[in-house]
Amino acid sequence: MVTSIVRYAAAAVSDVGSKRPTNEDSFGCSVERGVYVVCDGMGGAAAGEIASSQAVDEVMRRLTTRAKVTPLEEAIAEAIRAANEKIHSRSMQDLQLTGMGTTLVGLMTEKRRVLVFNVGDSRCYRLRNLGPGQSKLEQISQDHSLVEEQVRLGRLTHEEALRSPMRNVITRALGTQESVEPDLFECEAEPGDLFLLCSDGLTGELTDPLIESMLAVDLPLADLCARLVDAANKAGGHDNITCLLVRAES
Fold first, then answer.
1. pTM score, two decimals?
2. What is the spatial distance between Cα 2 and Cα 60, in angstroms, rounded to a whole number?
3. Is the pLDDT of residue 55 over 90?
């Protein structure tokens, strides 16, 4: 018999990193409504910061106030559409913001049901306990990036993708086009599952096996976030770093 999940807990840390002058990442979190979002903005001047914060604000506002009768999938699609339209419209009205956009990865919970959605290369992972001293980290989202699409087509290996000069080229983002479609993944949470939402400032510095080993330590979620960010900074900190952790609890 599977133990029922009665609640979730969450914590997040966002850091400018060691090389960038400003933080263009944004995040939103509502444990009460089961909505969690991380965005990584892009664009000149303050455009990236504007794009990511607008995306978080719009998606959080719509998903935390959705009518209970609205299916989660419909609510997510509408929130993404509205955020994309808002960012794209503003970029068309202000020449200084032309071309701004943002990645987005989000998670919604409804009891044991978990929906993960993403646009771009910000990621969602799940760490699952497999028994005493054993756990497994799995990437749930799929990167919308040039090299990852080449990997999925069998044209690049994962090792070649990590070394590719094109590894930062994303193929889908919020706000850069008139419309965009998110990917949506559904899974069932088990008590103890730990979900990580993060920008590529983390995954660009730390390998999946290292992230897995760091998350497998029994520490408060806020401490785990801080340890991940600190490790990414020590590994170079070339980009803004955001980690948001969500744990399913019985």
1. 0.93
2. 31
3. yes
The answer for residues whose C-beta is within 8 angstroms of residue 178's C-beta and 6 or more apart is: 85, 88
Whole-Å CA distances, 7 to 68, 187, 197, 213, 232:
18, 16, 18, 25, 30
33 contact partners, CB below 8 Å, separation of at least 6: 63, 64
Residue 1 has pLDDT above 60, yes or no: no
User: Given its phi and psi angles, is residue 91 left (phi above 0), alpha (psi -120 to 50 degrees) or beta?
Assistant: alpha
Please, what are the domains in the chain?
A: 7-249 (3.60.40.10)
Q: Is 39 helix (H, G, I), strand (E, B) or coil?
A: strand
Sheet holding 134-139: strands in order across? 7-15, 241-249, 194-198, 123-131, 134-139
Q: Residue 145 carries which DSSP code? A: B
> CA of 180: how far to CAs of 45, 107, 171, in Å?
24, 18, 11
Count of H-run helices and E-run strands, the chain:
7, 10
